[in-house]
Amino acid sequence: MNILIVDDQKSARRALTRILEQETDVALLEAASLSEARATLEAADIDLAFVDIRLSDDMRNTDGLTLVRDIKRTGNAVSICLTAAGEMSLIREAMRAGAYDYILKDDLCSELIVPVVQGLRDKQRLEREVETLRARVASGDTPLLVGSSASMERLRADLRLVALSDRPVLVTGPTGAGKEAVVRALHALGASPEALFLDVNCAAIPEALMESQLFGHEKGSFTGADRRTNGYLEAVGRGTLFLDEVAELTLSLQAKLLRVLETRVFRPVGSTTERSFHGRVVAATHRDLAERVRQGAFREDLYYRLNVIELRVPPLDDHPEDIPLLVAHFLRGQSRRLQFTAAAQEAMMRMRWPGNVRQLRNLIDRLLVFAESDTISVDELARVSGTKVASAEEVLRRVAREVLQLPIPDRLSAMQTVLMDEALLATDRNKSAAARMLGVHRKVIERRVGRDAAEYATESSDADGEP
């Protein structure tokens, strides 16, 4: 931190120097006049300037106010005015001119000056960090997430919105959809990406050990506790604590976790003193937590505390158009260079993926080992996957059989409506792109959207006319 001391009295400069040189990482510069101060500001990057309002014995001199305005105008530093106790009008003028604070020259002591310097240093550091984080989030760089579909773009947009918040986040989605990748991306874009990321699988750790793992324990607090051990809540610092499969926590541990989230303090097993929790909690589950609450297996108050912000990870069947990008991502860096025929890629997008992205990753791993050729055809895909790859016609017939079983009157019209709605949703309501996806003319989409708008207007008008 570069600090400029501007005072025409050498004794005043010396007094300030003695106080400020006790601070670490501080470089001190001095000036005795307005011209010297301006020359220093031109030559060096100044973070803070202590400026005497009067820079001569002449009581009419207010060169210090001029310097304060100069510093405010450049915006590269802040100034603190030095003045006598009886010059309140000049103090008010200095504050209007842009001074950060003022100090009376009779009160030049370390107890008063050092806290001001330290507070300003912390403020500037936080401002730089916020600017860096904003730039990183604005760049749209969301690491670890692969896909360009509308659903993945929406997930990225939500991530950028919540990344800098310190509120708890609940990540939901089916098994294998990529919830951990979303949580890691959230941490990488968060306020402390350099801090620890600790993940706890709540379903894999026995209840008897889970409390010690989370909260830590004191020596002798239970059999085998031969030394004091920090838990995840303390070890994570200002980082991210990821509670995977949080629905599997027992009710007693849920109550203790709730207290941590509400008070930001916790007590290790066997300890009589409380410790502070400074990190961020992100939880994930493939279960329906609202249903678990209704069943009495999950605390309602903890559910609402965790579910401040929810990020929903879509199943792979909802965005099959991302499969080619995911395949390319999984093959990156592999010693064997596999290539997929166009027919094989289309077949993969028609396949069912109950295991989601994890199932796709496993298939790629099997192909790397068992594929007889580096060019993957539909037949090779079927042989290694062990499943018959359905043709487009077979997929349509399967969907048609399912639609025919639905208890709705006009199935054909309903299917057309759903197809158009899904195409518009997938293309962010781009009518031309939706028409290309459906293989129809744009006017077909426009007529449908116009008819829906007219029906909505009629319904609204009827509703407004009701007594």
Structure class:
alpha/beta
Largest sheet: 5 strands, parallel
Average pLDDT metric: 84
Which bin fits the share of residues in helices? 40-55%
- Please tell me what the overall shape is: elongated
Please tell me how large the radius of gyration is. 32 Å
> Number of helix segments?
20
Which range does the strand content fall in? 5-15%
Q: How many domains make up the 3D coordinates?
A: 4
Low-confidence stretches: none
Strand order of the largest sheet: 2-1-3-4-5
Distance between the termini: 71 Å
CATH topology grouping of the largest domain = Rossmann fold
Strand tally is 16
Which homologous superfamily in CATH is the superfamily of the largest domain? Answer: P-loop containing nucleotide triphosphate hydrolases
What is the CATH class name of the largest domain?
Answer: Alpha Beta
Give an overview of the whole structure.
With 467 residues, this protein is of the alpha/beta class. It folds into 4 domains: 2-129, Response regulator (Rossmann fold), CATH 3.40.50.2300; 150-314, P-loop containing nucleotide triphosphate hydrolases (Rossmann fold, 3-Layer(aba) Sandwich); 318-392, Helicase, Ruva Protein, domain 3 (Orthogonal Bundle), CATH 1.10.8; 406-465, no CATH class. The chain is 51% helix and 13% strand. It contains 20 helices and 16 strands. The protein has helices spanning 10-20, 34-43, 63-74, 88-97, 110-138, 150-162, 179-188, 207-215, 232-235, 251-263, 289-294, 300-306, 323-331, 342-350, 356-370, 378-385, 392-404, 411-426, 431-438, 442-465, and strands at residues 2-6, 27-31, 48-52, 78-83, 101-104, 169-172, 197-201, 216-217, 229-230, 240-244, 265-266, 275-276, 280-285, 309-312, 339-340, 375-376. A 5-stranded parallel β-sheet has the order 2-1-3-4-5, sandwiched between helices. Helix 13 packs across helix 15 (356-370) and helix 19 (431-438) packs across helix 20. It is elongated, with a radius of gyration of 32 Å.
